[in-house]
Request: fold
Amino acid sequence: MQKFKNVYVTGTGHFLPGTKINNEEMDQYIGSVNRQSSRIKKMILTENGIKTRHYAINPEGDSKYSVAEMGAQASRVALADAGIELSDLDMIASGTTGGDVVAPGFSNMLQGELKAPPLETMSVSGICCSGMSALKSAAQTVDSGEHQHALVNATEFPSRLFKKTRFDNFEEGVDFNSHFLRWMLSDGAGSFVLSNKPKQNGLSFRLKWMHNRSFSGDFPTCMAVGFGKENAGKGYLDYPSLTEAEKHGGFHLRQDIRLLPNLFEVGFSEYLKLVKEDHIHPGKIDHFLCHYSSEKFSGTIKDLMMKSDVFIPEDKWYSNLSVSGNTGAASIFIMLSEFLKEKEVKPGEQILFFVPESGRFSVSYALLEVCESESAEAVLEGDDMAPPMPDRLKSDYPEMFLELSQVWAEYRSNALRTPLAQKVFSRELTKQEYCKWMSLWIPQVRVGSVWMRNALANLPDELKNLQGLIETHASEEQFDFNILYKDYKNMGGTMELDDMKRTPSGDALNQFMMSMGESNPMALLGGIFIIEGTGQKIIPTLLPFLKDTFGTELKVYKFLEYHGENDQNHLMRWANAVDLALAYSPNMASEIVECAKKVAMLYSMQWTDISQSLERE
Reply:
């Protein structure tokens, strides 16, 4: 998180090449590559909600513009909007997934295209968050007083990678991951002018803060160009020639959609962190500009957001996805430019940006405030005052859930960075190691219903509804260990059930849960939050990689599939249980959080214990 005092967006501009292309016209430009194309296209477009987009190629596949030319078009509009000349600029910062050339950097090529005088440049190579990284870097130089005016641009030209001729020499068949983005992405450019004070006439937008965070150490690559098939192994420069790289799909833009649900969960965790730290007050956000790739929304996450009183009403959301398409790093820049042409904003209103990136998972948030020249000083003075109390804390539940979300986020990151998870991601886990993992997990699953019923016996008689929820849950999971044991045997495991032993951390977890069930059974809801979250969020992330490693024909995934599919319902049952517990004892919220912290610590230790056990094999 970085706060700014003297950074204003004084000009916006965008450029969308050519005319709008509807879904029926897409094939004229990027074409079907095999018999599956039309079916996949229909399915993807139905889900993402995109109706029109723009391409910078013509139907013959020829480029009508360069990336630099599109960036320059958007930049000239932004400069005119800001009322300044090229000669006033001190810096150009840019972000893109791919410029016209590998080197020099895109900002240098844009400077050349604009014929701008000598100035500082900074180029960020990446995917959707590259433009936001460029924005933050430029804002830092303006806020420090080093520069007075900076131009920030993000431009994307993915259609060059999607035209049919790119797939003609591909020897291995076009996989779904290569198909997917062909029907998702389109071309365009967007620019902002940053200044150290508002412009003289009209509205400016004070950049109050930015928060950029990468999770590339937690997750494998989800979206990439430059690898061979499956986003793994050789990079394009490792092949004997670029022709060989192309034959093996080294220039296909791929996305592993199995990982995508994790991106929204990561972005949601960061959002809750910003709410908890009072950087975002949902009730004070007037406009939410959200760069999402699909109109589909997670019902469970939305429900929990609303239950936590942190949901921004949908009438405050703005997206140009359906009419301008998904333009990657340029999307949020184009979005603000189009938003300002369509909507009327007033001084004092707040605009929140959210940009998630699926490359290897990054998220970016930024908060802007609308201001006029004569009111800017008053805005600055007001920011130095103590922040008002957030309007979200109407009960103990919202604050408790914000605390739990941060406990969960830290635990999730710790778990996914363990050697065990990383070995699954790299598809290096052996059948012997899988069996060892299961043999250490089965005895823990076996005692789950025991400690639940122990807690049930110690609940107050007045909580019959809560007793019923816990009894239902315990009954459903009482014999789950048998499912897991059968998976273990199908993989080739040979140990008898009664000979299996928990890890030291597994023993510690069981002792803790039994003790809490006797002394403070309602607080165990915090531990259940971590346990069920592992089943709903972490296991489904690992499962596709296990199937890639061992094949889908083996009958060894039934337990993992069951929990990935059903723990979402379990979490909603958990939310109902929390409502009952807090209605009976409002002070229980802090104890639920403390229990979650302890269980998260013990579960993290167990991931490490299992990893070390595999290393000893």
User: Anything to note?
Assistant: The two ends are 43 Å apart (CA to CA).
